[in-house]
């Protein structure tokens, strides 16, 4: 577990350049940013501003070109492939836009899969609490195709929360959901922060989704472009509009 006084995740002078020479693209340009332990942070910015690249580097899914990435006090840039795989398995949870559930096994088996791969299992009290809180108690033996999109994403959230990871990384978690199912998933992510002390870092395009977070980190052209504390949909829309149309 990350000690409370350390940021759960941190980028230091993080630079990511894709390609080389004339065709190179600087997706992240010496980004410094901290993600507080026990907080829900949204990453926003115009299309192409580097949001996904930042999330992928924080999660060890992409190699930085320069700079450092920390999970608690672990420097990801010093780890090899095996170390990164174990770190992701043991200390990170993931929620993707496309749910990424295994179609051939039940909801319960999907939820428990990452822990099984690690040779672990949650205690039954914690499993029951997560399943009940996510409204999945009556759905445990269903296969993904027997569940609605919102239910499938709640299974993915349960799968991410059960190992009590240091950070849950969510990439457009409501992108494939109707607004009501999306609101449920966002409320659950927020509750996991408030009630379980979970740290959540979420990339989103949606000002309403971002308003569920405690803080919004803004990117523009691969650089930090400000922050919003206690965001509302209106405050996010206003700041995003300014980012897209900077004053001349
Ligand atoms: N694998 C890649 N190869 C080359 N360029 C890439 C690659 N991945 C991203 N880029 C470029 O890096 C920049 C940042 O991309 P990124 O996907 O991080 O932005 P984003 O803010 O998440 O965008 P969107 O909101 O459209 O998803 C863009 O210019 C993109 O074209």
UniProtKB/TrEMBL annotation:
Keyword terms: ATP-binding, Nucleotide-binding, Transport
Domain ABC transporter: 12-246
Organism taxonomic ancestry: Bacteria, Bacillati, Actinomycetota, Actinomycetes, Mycobacteriales
Gene3D superfamilies given in the database record: P-loop containing nucleotide triphosphate hydrolases
This protein's record includes keyword Transport: yes
Nucleotide-binding listed as a keyword: yes
Protein name: ABC transporter ATP-binding protein
Organism of derivation: Rhodococcus gannanensis
Matching Pfam families: ABC_tran
GO MF term set: ATP binding
